[in-house]
Amino acid sequence: MHVEIFGNQQLSAVLFLHGGPGESCYEFVYHQAKRLSEIFHLVAIDQRGVCRSEEINSTEEFGLRDLVEDCEELRTQLGINKWAVIGHSFGGYVSLLYASAYPDSITKVIFECPTFDFSWTSKSLLRRASSVFLSLGDPNKSAECNSLATSDLQSKELFDQYLRLGEELGEKKAEIYRVNNLTSIDYSAYTDEEWELFADRTEIHLNRLREEGRMFESIVPLLTTLSVPSMLILGEADPVTCDSHIQAYDQISNGNKIMVDNCGHTPHAERPDLYGLIVSTFLLSDK
User: Sorted alphabetically, which PANTHER family does this protein's record hold (predicted)?
Assistant: First the structure.
């Protein structure tokens, strides 16, 4: 598994879990590693089978639970007693599972634009995709997105339909997730051929999780069992953490919530300075 470690190991440890399924910690590290490593012992990973991590082969057993167990095994191998966890998007889903399974290993959890229910998220993404199709002059695809968003399809079917329609948007798919102030990022650390190889690995990771199906189970009920302090970081224009997620999070007793304005799905990249301040202030506080 690809692991990146920053900052003095005597500082409080923080684990970052990326989204997707199948994104990477590359973008987060690019924008946040220097900022956060001045205050924390930061650990960031490409989850099993993703991007720079070793490819999952066809005979290897792999499922959602492995992502949780990988976190705990990594903590043990690094000799970290406890750490805080930051989970972005699908990483928020994994973070909640991890905190629920191993509460004694975790000090605090930050959920950055998370999903806890793929049905809720898929419907919200479809509604946003509808708006993008309409802006591109395709009312038929726009109507199809809206129809799916109000349907009774199961979580996996909704997610698969969103993936299909998102692919049809091509580069315009980014408009679903972000506002126009995205901070630039340099991808030249790897060649185009290497990025293509990373994408192939990521596709295997995603498909194996889809086939297993456990990621489509709502884990919203776990929120009220969370025993460590947490924070929900929201992007003002983020479609992933929809109103249903926010209302569910509001039911927990030890939760904090903050909205980042002029921002979409990736506050760590769109508002990096503010994000670093929010994260460090919360993790260093007594709350």
Answer: HYDROLASE, PUTATIVE (AFU_ORTHOLOGUE AFUA_2G14860)-RELATED, MONOACYLGLYCEROL LIPASE
